Amino acid sequence: MKKLAINGGTPCRDITIQPWPKWPVWGKEEEVALIDVLHSGVWSYNGPKEMEFNRLFAEYTGVKHAICTVNGTITLQIALEALGIGVGDEVIVPGLTWQATAATVIDVNAIPILVDVSEDNWCIDPKEIEKAITPRTKAIIPVHLYGAFADMDAIMAIAKKHNLYVIEDCAHKHGGEWNGKKAGSIGDIGSFSYQLSKHLTSGEGGSVTTNNTELANKLDALRNCGRRPEADAFEGVDKGAGDYGDDDGNFIQSGNLRITEFQAAILVEGLKRLPAQNENRDANAEYLNSLLAEIPGVSPIARDKRETKKAYFNFAFKYSKNEFKGLPIEKFRNALQAELGLVVDSSYEPLNNCSLYVPHTKPSRHKLNDVYWEEIDPKRFSLPVCERIFKEQSVCVHHKVLMGSTADMDLVAEAIKKIYEHVSELLD
Fold first, then answer.
1. CA distances for 299 relative to 87, 288, 292, 424, angstroms
2. In this structure, how many other beta carbons lie within 10 angstroms of the beta carbon of residue 271?
3. φ, ψ for residue 190, nearest 5 deg
4. Domain assignment of residue 413, yes or no
5. CATH of the domain at 240
6. Which residues of 25-40 are buried (b: 16+ CB within 10 A; e: fewer)?
7. I need a surface site. Which of 178, 198, 392, 428 has the fewest CB within 10 A?
8. How far apart are CA 389 and CA 365, in angstroms?
9. How many domains does the chain have?
10. How far is it, in rounded angstroms, from Cα 224 to Cα 256?
């Protein structure tokens, strides 16, 4: 009789009896807050909930300014625009990330330079950054991927040496800390997403963070139809001349990239829960990683000692088919999914061969000239580590798995061991 669930055996977890923790998390607090917004009649445009969340998130992140926007793609775009990055400029981006990290560079008519990642943590490799710098390079966008932190010491040193801007893509790292500094407070600008799957969510939404008041002024204008910040929005800015326009106070071309009061109300309550949720996820991840380290063929993502607080968007680990008698990783993921009753994915697709990152499908928008058209072709980049991670190593599950108990972590490890012990069933 077959033992593995994918072959008809009994799964390690019957989710009809023992479901995984739900995501998103909400309670009476969100209900009350949403009803309050409904009755207030102030549903958008710098409402009290949005202003409250901006203040709370800035305090939490350890920055002077946090500004809400419509999503975590727009945050990257307006960050680039606020820094004056555009036609002919190059921006260094990791090859293993969500497509928006690179697509927004093209959206400001700059050139994404895709570089490889470190094998130990899947984040951008500082050595590859150095190799990619040219006289046209203007910025680096490190991505703190899944549970790991990009090496911000090395990246900030490189940026200082070459006079480059750093935009932290923190879509996976709300509340994570590097040497005691929170993600989004280290580079020139931080970019956050509140999309439904993220570990701080309002369904959609995003924030930019910065310690630079002039940049905050520009970012605020860009997300608000080019309007200057309202009176007293940012201390220390000359409202007559410090706007994102000229000395006469003229506006700049932009659009409506604002969040709603309903989203902000949910974020205010979600932020109250985030520290405890992050601590719980970290404790469970550390325990699960200790279990994985004892199982042949799987291994944890490296944890840097300079990460003083962990934050997980999804939980990822490495797979080696050699220890599983050559079992292809797709079959391993499918078997684990059947045992646990939840989606088991690969990492993101490397951007040099990603089905969602295809700038050449929009010539009417992106074909500025023949040279630029060639420069934005992602296939011109070689990303062997990214490709190896995607095709051979990566196993990822949603971070809700980490919101349970240590017994839940034991069960994940048990499922992997079960596949290891009965791998022959999958090789028939």
1. 43, 10, 6, 21
2. 18
3. -105, 145
4. no
5. 3.40.640.10
6. bbeeebeebbeebeee
7. 428
8. 32
9. 1
10. 5
User: What's CA 409's distance to the chain center, in Å?
Assistant: 24
3-class DSSP string for the chain:
CCCCHHHCCCCCCCCCCCCCCCCCCCCHHHHHHHHHHHHHCCCECCCHHHHHHHHHHHHHHCCCEEEEECCCCHHHHHHHHHCCCCCCCEEEEECCCCCHHHHHHHHCCCEEEEECECCCCCCECHHHHHHHCCCCEEEECCECCCCCCCCHHHHHHHHHHHCCEEEEECCCCCCCEECCEECCCCCCEEEEECECCCCCCCECCEEEEECCHHHHHHHHHHCECCCCCCCCCCCCCCCCCCCCCCCCCCCCCCCECCCEHHHHHHHHHHHHHHHHHHHHHHHHHHHHHHHHCCCCCEEECCCCCCEEECCCCCEEEEECHHHHCCCCHHHHHHHHHHHHCCCEECCCCCHHHCCCCCHHHCHHHHCCCHHHHHHCCHHHCCCHHHHHHHHHHEEEECHHHHHCCHHHHHHHHHHHHHHHHCHHHHCC
Q: Classify residue 285: in a domain, yes or no.
A: no
Dist. CA 141–CA 393, nearest whole Å? 24
Establish if 301 belongs to a structural domain: no
Asked if residue 230 is part of any domain, the answer here is yes
- For residues 4-19, average pLDDT: 95
Pair 46, 68: CB distance under 8 Å? no
- Torsions phi, psi for 281 (to 5 deg): -60, -40
Q: Is the peptide bond before 24 cis (omega within 30 degrees of 0)?
A: yes
The range of the structural domain enclosing residue 237 comes to 28-268
Q: What is the pLDDT of residues 289-337, one digit of tens each?
A: 999 999 999 999 999 999 999 999 999 999 999 999 999 999 999 999 9
**What tokens does 94 get?**
């990791």
pLDDT in tens, 99-108: 999 999 999 9
pLDDT digit string, tens, across residues 196-250: 999 999 999 999 999 999 999 999 999 999 987 765 555 444 443 334 454 455 6
345, 79 contact by CB (below 8 A):
no
For residue 182, pLDDT over 90 is answered with: yes
Residue type, 52: E
